[in-house]
Design brief:
Layout (H helix, E strand, L loop, with lengths): L1 H34 L7 H31 L4 H8 L6 H12 L4 H13 L4 H13 L2 H11 L1 H24 L8 H6 L15 H36 L6 H4 L6 H9 L6 H13 L4 H13 L2 H7 L5 H25 L1
């Protein structure tokens, strides 16, 4: 009991400190820029303000969300996720897999070993692909940062459109019956483990909070460099790119901007934490929301490292179908965003 009280007390103090610091960021950035003799009317002053404000803001948001999802992870483990999807049919299975992708803290690369485990547990290929797409693209980090920067409407629309891409892409791939394009050793694993996977024993709350801190250390420690680089690039765009310049390249009237954004984003490697500050800066300079979202989704969902790892389990034709179907879905999302917003 004493241990639980200490953990809850520490959590409450940390939460209050987080709220206080988050509320002071804007004023701190203003003061710091002024203290070095710069004005936000100057390009460098505005870029510096953007950088000083956004780096701690994104890190604070990321820390809070990763901690919460680390706690969620103690309820939704890989074993439990695999057990929930085993035996699910197309359609309902695709929707459940995509929904689980939101609440399971797995990036695109860490989702690939789960992909193998799902196939081994008898989860259909198309259902497994729905999870593989949803887990990195509609993840807790992306949703929290979108909510913090653009509001709940954009975050909610992104979530629903991302889920639609994951569900429909998985269903399309599933109907193509491409199991023969798995590597031979993966085909032999299919259905070799029954659905009765082990589920971890219940944990007490101090253990769950400790797990949340472990996730913060691992995930934030791994992505903070991407955040700094992403915010730095965003700061340069924010401070130096002329107003409405991006509208001529990525505006909604430019019909080819969405497919071009997807083609540019596919070979890149980043994550939501690193790419969203760039998204914010592009939008501030006149780029269309749908075009920028298509760029972000392609970077997150079709990263180069993920394709390299997938090559170990998928043959080239299935990788090409996967990338093509998902890219088509992302382009559709971009056009829809530009049409309705």
């Amino acid at each position: 009991m004493n241990q639980s009280v200490r953990w809850w007390g520490g959590f409450l103090l940390a939460a209050l400190l987080w709220v206080f610091v988050y509320g002071q960021l804007e004023g701190f950035a203003e003061v710091l820029v002024s203290s070095v003799g710069l004005s936000r009317a100057l390009p460098f002053g505005e870029a510096l303000y953007f950088f000083i404000y956004e780096v701690p803001k994104v890190l604070l948001l990321l820390t809070a969300v990763v901690f919460v999802m680390g706690v969620v992870h103690t309820f939704v483990s890989p074993e439990r996720t695999r057990a929930m999807l085993s035996g699910r049919k197309r359609g309902a299975g695709n929707m459940l897999a995509a929904a689980l992708g939101i609440v399971t803290p797995f990036c695109s690369c860490s989702a690939v070993p789960l992909f193998i485990g799902f196939l081994q547990a008898g989860v259909p290929l198309g259902v497994t692909f729905s999870f593989l797409i949803s887990a990195p693209m509609v993840n807790e980090v992306a949703l929290a940062l979108l909510f913090g920067m653009f509001g709940w409407k954009v975050a909610l629309l992104y979530m629903f459109m991302g889920l639609a891409v994951a569900v429909l892409s998985g269903m399309v791939i599933g109907r193509m019956n491409m199991e023969r394009h798995l590597e031979e050793w993966v085909q032999k694993l299919q259905g070799s483990a029954g659905p009765g996977s082990a589920v971890p024993l219940a944990m007490v709350w101090p253990g769950r909070m400790r797990e949340g801190l472990v996730h913060v250390k691992e995930i934030v420690g791994r992505v903070w460099v991407f955040i700094v680089l992403g915010v730095g690039l965003g700061a340069g765009i924010h401070g130096y790119v002329p107003e409405n310049f991006m509208a001529s390249l990525m505006g909604r009237e430019v019909w080819w901007s969405v497919p071009a954004a997807v083609l540019i984003g596919v070979p890149m490697y980043s994550n939501a934490a690193g790419i969203i500050p760039v998204v914010q800066a592009l939008l501030g300079k006149g780029a269309a929301l749908g075009t920028v979202m298509a760029f972000m989704m392609s970077v997150i969902a079709l990263s180069a490292p993920e394709m390299i790892i997938l090559r170990k389990v998928l043959r080239p034709r299935l990788i090409a179908v996967f990338a093509g179907v998902v890219a088509s879905g992302i382009m559709l999302v971009g056009f829809v965003f530009n049409l309705v917003l």
